[in-house]
Amino acid sequence: MRCNLPPLSNEYRNDAGSKSHLVTANPSIIEKRFQNLLWSRKAFVDSVQVYNHSYIYMPAFSMKTGTELSLRAYYTLSDFSANQMVLFANPDFLRHAAKFWKNKGVHAKRLSTGLFLVSAALGLCEEVTLYGFWPFSVDLHGVSISHHYYDNVLPYTGFHAMPEEFLQLWLLHKIGILRMQIGQCKEA
């Protein structure tokens, strides 16, 4: 599972791998990267080919502003007979997950896509290992790192509560519910 249509090009393959079964796509990404799918439908279809037969998971009905863009992504992939299929997040699941995490101490205007995806994974998978959920600008050794492996675009200020989310995930890691990989991965 991957968040927010990340690149899987050769330059990242050694660190991020290339497999995927489910990829999230926030409507804001469709808006910014693909101009609302008004003028770049083919560019969108071409860009998601890297995910092979993965599902594209979108929160179509969680916010009014995301519905039209999510449906446009669905119809674009359908019109081009793409290998990917759009899945829409159940708004009740999103609402209940937000309430659950708020009761655990995550006070954000909106949870991150990553935390919603972890919530889904915990309900679907026997084992969950997280990579890339480090919310700080320096690593464990004080070395500066980017927000994503492919860019340093930060989330909107005051929108997400990444350190609070990280703390909750770390607590789940400490009691064995999931595994978090926060340092360098060991070579197999």
TrEMBL record:
It is found in: Golgi apparatus membrane. It is a single-pass type II membrane protein. GO terms for biological process: N-glycan processing; oligosaccharide metabolic process. Keywords: Glycoprotein, Glycosyltransferase, Golgi apparatus, Membrane, Signal-anchor, Transferase, Transmembrane, Transmembrane helix. Gene3D superfamilies: Glycosyl transferase family 29. Pathway: Protein modification; protein glycosylation. Transmembrane segments: none annotated. One of its GO terms (cellular component) is Golgi membrane. It comes from the Eukaryota. GO terms for molecular function: alpha-N-acetylneuraminate alpha-2,8-sialyltransferase activity. Belongs to the glycosyltransferase 29 family. This is ST8 alpha-N-acetyl-neuraminide alpha-2,8-sialyltransferase 1. It comes from Latimeria chalumnae (Coelacanth). The lineage of its organism: Eukaryota, Metazoa, Chordata, Craniata, Vertebrata.
